[in-house]
Amino acid sequence: MPKPISDTTLDTEARRLDEPYLHDKLVAQVRDMHRSKMLSPVGLPCGVATVDGKHLATLNHDAGGRAQPRSDENKKWQPKGTAKTGKPYFLAPVLRAVLTSAEAKPTLAQVAMGPHEGESTVFPRMVEALHKAYGRSDMIDIIDADAGLTSLANADLVDKLGYGYVFALKGNQPELFAEARALLEPMTASQPPEAESAWEGRNGKQIRRRLWRTPEMQRFQNSVGTWSHLRQTWLVRQETRNKQGSVEIEDRFFVTSLLWNYFKPIQILLLVRGHWGIENDSNNSLDLQWLEDSGPWCTRGNAVWALGLLRLMAYNAVQYLRKRRLRRNDKIGAWMSPMRWRTVFKLIRQALENAAPVSLQVFPGV
What we know:
The protein has 11 helices and 13 strands. By secondary structure, the chain is an alpha+beta fold. It has 2 domains: 7-335, Transposase Inhibitor Protein From Tn5, Chain A, domain 1; 336-366, no CATH class. Strand 12 and strand 13 (247-256) form a beta hairpin. It starts with 6 loop residues before the first helix and ends in a 5-residue tail after the last helix.
């Protein structure tokens, strides 16, 4: 570039970005990674796509009618001071899907939520988008989602399209949740777990997970209908031990359409742990390292969502560098911890400076 681009020009061009076009480019990037054998599952026999919500920006305008107005459901994202003043604000939430079975955990798709839509009602669009983009490949076999997306209609759709599902279970499905607790909680006192992970360190604490499961809820009937595809129910107990030796217990329940022997018990624990890859690897990194939570520099029109897609493509490329290309093996052949994000950013900057020193001199803040 012979000279810097003005802020006005960047703002104008950001508003003109074509969101569907960019999403197709994101899909093309992931498919290319898959063809290059970069996205093979680690520790599992198949591919798992995890779907979760993500907040992109808090705005002081409705982005041309696309953003969500403040409500009791989204007030956790309200800017400081607006609760007392009543000043209006708007949000830009999306659903994202991440291939949590792969080492690099790339983002597969992004679907925007409309002004009065929730995650569960947008979930069918995400499943259909995944099926359209990747359905003819062998990349995805299972769709994994948090409890807010669990419903009979969503399970019916996933099953109809030929995928297995693993849905977390909480109080938003009271009949399912009550039956799961009644069946599985007594098992924790009377039976040993089918699988148990080793203790692992995290933030100065030790964590392990233990598995109990039952087939007793097959074809479960509730007030909504029959879960004809439901085959198993899982309880994964996470135990967190602090330095003083006391242990905190958290029970998580799941319903799934998978056959009983589809996974080994220890692989079930690996899948459940991998679910949090969408938070730890993707959402958390994008917020803290890529500063997505700070808000985009242009918020008019489609810019928030289009810039989010550009960021995802950059994230996928750099995440693959961290997790695979720039990651070394130790003396026994095991993967060492990936580089820190800031270290990778520094290496990329150095590479750009060596390749195009004149261009970067006009952008000293890059």
